[in-house]
Amino acid sequence: MKSARRLALTLTLASCGEPAAPIVPPPDEPPIETPDDVPLEVAPLEPDEARMGGATTVFRADPEAFLQPVANITVERKSRFLLGEANFEVDWVPSPSSQRDRDGLGPLFHATSCLACHVGNGRGAPVVGSAQAPAPLLIRLSLPGQDAHGAPIPEPTYGDQFQPRSIAGTPAEGQVQVTYESLPAITLTGTTSVSLQSPSYTLVELGYGPLEPDVRMSPRIAQPMVGLGLLAAIPDATLLAWADPDDRDGDGIRGRPNRVWSVKEGREVLGRFGWKANQPDLEHQAAGALLGDMGLTSPLFLQPACTAAQTRCQEGATGGEPEVDATNLATLSDYSHLIAVPARRGADREDVRMGKAAFLRAGCAGCHRPTTVTGELPGFPELSHQRIWPYTDLLLHDLGEALADGRDDFQATGTEWRTPPLWGLGLTATVNGHTHLLHDGRARSVLEAILWHGGEATASREAVRRMSPRERAALLTFLDSL
Ligand code: HEC
Ligand code: HEC
């Protein structure tokens, strides 16, 4: 055990990306002053703009705002939502156990329930002041290259996800340590200056010997669960029409869909979910989470998440074959589709509409697309043909080296991320008691999240840096109304 403890691997931003990557996103010369007395544009409120999920929208702004079924659900369909909710919240236990339909956890795992990471159906946060990674942060692992289906190649000993916990008798894979370094302050117009904190991740107490030297790792925090069925209902054709991989319109913003392997359909499809659009649909995402996060097999993934080197893991008792049956997997998928988006607060206020104008002027909408209409999603009449306001294009964008994880995920490169939807953003503090953002929760506020933007979003970030304090405050007020 002592020698295993010494086998540690640290990957910092500098070592996992290209050499000589600039870590501080903005240049540090002071921004050009913009006078604060120029009248600000006030954008008009569009019809139904506040009802972000169309007819599915709920009017809640309390700590349970992300736990509601879509508003237009029927009584019969609500019972499916509740069955899925029970499966989402339940703690799985190791087998053998008397709870036959709840066992099979592990042998290697990360958490015992979906809700343990998706707290309140909101977003995870790093634990401030603790070196140990919190439950909602997981580390994806791979070697350079792709398998026959374009998927990342798992690390041979540890697999494709690092598992910090295990059932009795099986060694855990190890622990994740996070440290933050304060970066030089960034100056903004006015008196504000902001110092971002840059994370590095170290895998320690390795239970199965050293990792491959050229392992790639991608730290990712649990994402909010609201409105996902509506995102699933946006037609492929819409995403393809938004894509501009060669920047033909010359606005500096490209955007392309990820293409991932669907096990269910046995073919390549557009990716939509996960921080790199690395999952095709919500059933896959649920089955992937059951296997990768809880060690539970399901009809989509029948093989336990143990590598050839992990013999104790392979010999572990099974909780049925598969451990989660087709019915329970389907309820988890239905539940993930039917969680409602809360309405905006104060969308018609003048300062909020000033912020909306600032959002459009800074080019944020080039990626965070405000609105679209869903298509027909078979099996989900509630979600079909709705005017929605997700503030995403679901496409991959290069956000620069400072945010890069240096790890390919299907067609997403190490610098690319999917534009995250911004609906529900302003309720983060109410639902989760924190304001941490971005794929690994490194940003402590919305302003910090914006200042991390680079790559295709450099011009947007610089526009925010140069805004007068009044305009920037309006922008943040607008974002808080989402
Ligand atoms: C260990 C913590 C953890 C557990 C447990 C967990 N998740 Fe997640 N979830 C995450 C992380 C991290 C992501 C982002 C994954 C990525 O980018 O690859 C995510 C992403 C998702 C998404 C995609 C959201 C989006 O906006 O694209 C869905 C849906 C989801 N999880 C559902 C589930 C379900 C259902 C379960 C239980 C079967 C579950 N999760 C269990 C951490 C967790
Ligand atoms: C070129 C595309 C692009 C542009 C332009 C852009 N963003 Fe983003 N935005 C992204 C991507 C991609 C991420 C995710 C990055 C990550 O997690 O590492 C993101 C993340 C965010 C987040 C954090 C969301 C979350 O769930 O953690 C906020 C807030 C945000 N952007 C606001 C803005 C604002 C405001 C503007 C305009 C000033 C803007 N963005 C411009 C692509 C863009």
From TrEMBL:
<dbReference type="GO" id="GO:0009055">
    <property type="term" value="F:electron transfer activity"/>
</dbReference>
<dbReference type="InterPro" id="IPR036909">
    <property type="entry name" value="Cyt_c-like_dom_sf"/>
</dbReference>
<dbReference type="Pfam" id="PF06537">
    <property type="entry name" value="DHOR"/>
</dbReference>
<dbReference type="GO" id="GO:0020037">
    <property type="term" value="F:heme binding"/>
</dbReference>
<feature type="region of interest" description="Disordered">
    <location>
        <begin position="18"/>
        <end position="40"/>
    </location>
</feature>
<dbReference type="InterPro" id="IPR051395">
    <property type="entry name" value="Cytochrome_c_Peroxidase/MauG"/>
</dbReference>
<keyword id="KW-0408">Iron</keyword>
<feature type="compositionally biased region" description="Acidic residues">
    <location>
        <begin position="30"/>
        <end position="39"/>
    </location>
</feature>
<keyword id="KW-0349">Heme</keyword>
<dbReference type="InterPro" id="IPR009056">
    <property type="entry name" value="Cyt_c-like_dom"/>
</dbReference>
<protein>
    <submittedName>
        <fullName>Thiol oxidoreductase</fullName>
    </submittedName>
</protein>
<keyword id="KW-0479">Metal-binding</keyword>
<feature type="domain" description="Cytochrome c">
    <location>
        <begin position="350"/>
        <end position="482"/>
    </location>
</feature>
<dbReference type="InterPro" id="IPR010538">
    <property type="entry name" value="DHOR"/>
</dbReference>
<dbReference type="GO" id="GO:0004130">
    <property type="term" value="F:cytochrome-c peroxidase activity"/>
</dbReference>
<dbReference type="GO" id="GO:0046872">
    <property type="term" value="F:metal ion binding"/>
</dbReference>
